[in-house]
Design brief:
single chain, about 475 residues, 8-stranded mixed β-sheet, 6-stranded mixed β-sheet, 12 helices, binds flavin-adenine dinucleotide
Length: about 475
């Protein structure tokens, strides 16, 4: 491999090595720029949270072979407004959705392949295209393409400093083979993720409870680049406590457990806390619309732990986690195995069973099976827990990514405190997702934001570098 010339400034310096970074790098390289991708992780772990993804959401007219459809831009926008409760930048939200229509063709041109539309219970076949080979397969295609276009990629090279003067990027300082190496560039694209893997930073907002959070993705997204940008007077966006958080198997590793630790059993039974008490309506709405609230709900419980309790009727109705369910012949025995108070769990289950009203169970829609006179209620899919064996899963908050980020405009150009646009600094992906996601989440939109703003940032950086 030829030695890398770090003395000559690059046209575009891209920080990060996931979807947003690669979409930027490819776009800038296609515009004729000399581009470097600076990835903090070792090569095996390249691509941050993007490695764990399975799909991206896009608006389309129904002719794409990868989705059923159509999925109109208005419908996508309605979905986004609903989950964010209107807390989104309207201009950037509309831009995201408009440019999402180009993504399947763009990805296809870079060699990314998709599966046929998804069937089954997730209800995503119309809205989301699934990568063949998952996020890692998709990333491998993007890296191959970037390298073929002449992009320089360096691994194991965390950015430890940024040299910025009056909102203008001059160089990034990278730790490489024990030395600090400055990398100069005419333009910057920051695509180095959120701060979800930085427990100390999370603790500033969540207190000690953050010690019990599990981080679903890469340990490398510690927010170092985000912090440096905010310290250099880039305008912040987003509520620091807002993040995408789901309930995951409590036996998952602290970092990088990925999708295999997610548990979709909640709607089929009851959820109880450490004191064996129910705390929220498990049947409020269909799972894709509600799964992302459970991370926050579990975070609010004592010791940040909860337990999903189901019986033999439901054990085959959901995608299990990679860890086996804890099984017992009775509710009392299950409580002992889960280290819960048996009398308390037996009473909670008995009260729940007594409140269940007869109905026709149908997990594919909002059915009429509900409880009566119970607080909190279970509004749908309420069936008595009466068929042994009984099963339990321990659950903890699983943080996917944080929403505090840098403010950008329609060119994906960073805005400085006071509102002026930076001369040569752009951002894409998680590090600016809070512009679009004020709160809530829509499955697949993380990759949409990364690809749409990655392309915009690459284009903006390239046009600055060539002028
Ligand atoms: C388990 C899981 C499943 C998911 N599934 C989906 C899905 O199916 N669809 C979807 O849309 N979204 C999904 N997401 C969210 C999605 O992963 C993110 O929205 C998306 O990957 C963000 O892309 P990005 O390029 O901004 O960040 P990342 O892909 O996380 O890339 C950030 C990069 O920055 C690097 N980095 C960090 N700090 C530094 C530093 N100091 N110096 C240099 N490099 C640094 C990291 O190593 C990493 O390569 C999922 C997330 C998880 C955790």
């Amino acid at each position: 491999m030829p030695a890398i010339d770090f003395h000559e400034p690059f046209d575009v310096v891209v920080l990060g090595g996931g979807n947003a970074a690669l979409c930027s790098a490819i776009t800038a390289a296609r515009a004729g720029c000399r581009v470097i991708v600076v990835e903090g992780a070792p090569q095996f772990y390249r691509g941050g949270n993007t490695r764990h993804t399975r799909n991206l959401r896009c608006s389309h007219d129904g002719t794409a072979p990868t989705m059923t459809g159509p999925y109109a831009q208005d419908e996508f926008l309605d979905d986004l407004y609903r989950v964010t409760c209107g807390q989104t930048d309207k201009v950037l939200a509309e831009l995201t959705i408009k440019r999402s229509t180009e993504l399947i063709d763009f990805m296809d041109e870079q060699g990314v392949r998709f599966q046929p539309p998804l069937g089954g219970t997730l209800s995503l076949g119309k809205t989301n295209a699934f990568f063949l080979g998952g996020g890692r397969g998709m990333l491998n295609s993007l890296y191959r393409r970037a390298e073929a276009l002449g992009v320089t990629v360096i691994y194991d090279s965390p950015v430890v400093g940024l040299n910025i003067a009056d909102g203008f990027f001059i160089s990034a300082v990278v730790k490489r083979e024990g030395r600090q190496v400055p990398i100069r560039g005419k333009a910057l694209v920051a695509a180095a993720g959120g701060f979800e893997a930085n427990i100390e930073w999370l603790k500033q907002y969540w207190g000690a409870t953050a010690d019990n959070f599990l981080i679903r993705g890469t340990p490398y997204n510690r927010g170092d680049v985000l912090r440096m940008l905010l310290d250099a007077d880039v305008m912040a966006v987003g509520d620091p406590t807002q993040c995408h958080a789901v309930a995951i198997d409590a036996r998952a590793p602290k970092f990088d457990g990925g999708i295999a630790t997610r548990l979709d059993s909640v709607v089929f039974g009851i959820m109880v806390n450490r004191d064996a008490q129910r705390f929220y309506d498990e049947g409020e709405d269909t799972w894709p619309k509600r799964y992302a609230i459970w991370g926050r709900l579990v975070a609010q419980q004592p010791d940040q732990i909860a337990y999903s309790i189901i019986d033999a009727k439901s054990i085959r109705m959901f995608m299990p986690s990679i860890f086996p369910a804890i099984e017992a012949a009775s509710i009392g025995e299950l409580a002992v195995k889960l280290k819960l108070d048996p009398a308390a769990l037996e009473k909670t289950v008995a009260d729940f069973n007594a409140a269940v009203r007869p109905g026709t169970f149908d997990h594919t829609q909002l059915d009429g099976c509900c409880t009566e006179g119970l607080t909190p209620p279970k509004s749908h899919w309420a069936r008595k827990l009466d068929t042994a064996p009984y099963y339990g899963y321990p659950l903890r908050p699983g943080i996917t990514f944080t929403y505090l980020g840098v403010r950008v405009n329609e060119e994906s150009r960073m805005l400085l405190k006071g509102g002026a646009p930076s001369g040569n600094m752009f951002a894409a992906g998680e590090i600016m997702a809070g512009n679009v996601l004020g709160k809530g989440y829509l499955a697949g939109i993380g990759m949409t934001i990364g690809a749409v703003f990655g392309r915009l940032a690459g284009q903006g950086a390239a046009s600055h570098a060539s002028n």
